[in-house]
Amino acid sequence: MYNQAISASADTFEAQNATVRFTATPEGTALAYGSLLFMALLPIFFGALRSVRCSKSKKGGEMPETITSRDAARFPIIASCTLFGLYLFFKLFSQEYINLLLSLYFFVLESLLSRLDPDVERLRHHLTNSNNVVFAEILNYEFDTKSLICLVLSSVVGVWYLLKKHWIANNLFGLAFALNGVELLHLNNVSTGCILLGGLFVYDVFWVFGTNVMVTVAKSFEAPIKLVFPQDLLEKGLGASNFAMLGLGDIVIPGIFIALLLRFDVSLKKNTRTYFYSSFVAYIFGLVLTIFIMHTFKHAQPALLYLVPACVGFPVLVALLKGEVTEMFR
């Protein structure tokens, strides 16, 4: 799920304007960008903390998905193919029907597939030994009170999003996807992280500055794969429609690298979080710089152009000062 979401995400900061040109007030602009920054930091911070617990967990349902160097090298190519494919679909077919299918995928098919996935081995066993109990096993789920409450709440928000496409519902799902992505997608080492971030650095710069593909997909794609916040909230309230946006890829991709550095801090057993905090501050610096450049030049910016050098450069500089470069890249 996260790979599709990240690949298709609008990895740009862009003001999404309505057909009538709207000039945001300084207060509205500051509120929108400040809110996006705050929302971006939440899943990174808490997702990184949860990734440490997840890496120590022995439960099968909580085991993370490890990204290898081969996966990292392939990812920008897969992301490019997915992005361009979406661009062609939006050019050839009705945007309304495409977004309807995408919404159904995110909220129906993905939920079913993820729920059946833990039972694949058990299903294979019963298919080869006893067909009589297959369906009983598939339907044999146990829910506690917490799970049922979460199921009801997520269903309500899902229906709200499907019917209204409201930006608050979009952000609730976007934050949940980003949090789970940072928690469950684990880089196996810092070198793999550098390969992934370097490849997506080139990917982001090319598709934003070299073509109009990224911005077109960002504005056309109606699915919770980006965080949005209205710049006209102060004027129009919750019915505001002029949005600034940040793709989930600009959160999850740097986020899984920051989470890796937190696990590296833990592995050093020095009771410090130097690399985590340095990379976290670097992310804030990179995102603020992205906002500043975009606001100054009034043009969509590839956020990874600023985030990647910051998130990689700051921790490496710290490692050089502490003489721990070898340990970091080991």
TrEMBL record:
GO BP annotations, alphabetical order: membrane protein proteolysis; signal peptide processing
Q: Does the keyword Chloroplast apply?
A: no
**A Gene Ontology molecular-function term?**
aspartic endopeptidase activity, intramembrane cleaving
Enumerate the subcellular locations listed in this protein's record, separating them with semicolons.
Endoplasmic reticulum membrane; Membrane
Q: Which domain of life is it from?
A: Eukaryota
Q: Does the keyword Membrane belong to this entry?
A: yes
Q: Report the GO terms under cellular component.
A: cytoplasmic side of endoplasmic reticulum membrane; lumenal side of endoplasmic reticulum membrane
Q: Which residues form a coiled coil?
A: none
Signal peptide interval: none
Q: Which UniProt keywords are given for this protein, alphabetically ordered? A: Endoplasmic reticulum, Hydrolase, Membrane, Transmembrane, Transmembrane helix
Tell me the membrane topology, using the record's own terms: Multi-pass membrane protein
Q: Which chain regions cross the lipid bilayer?
A: 30-52, 72-90, 96-114, 169-187, 194-218, 238-262, 274-297, 303-321
Q: Which family does it belong to?
A: Belongs to the peptidase A22B family.
From the Swiss-Prot or TrEMBL record, give the protein name: Histocompatibility (minor) 13
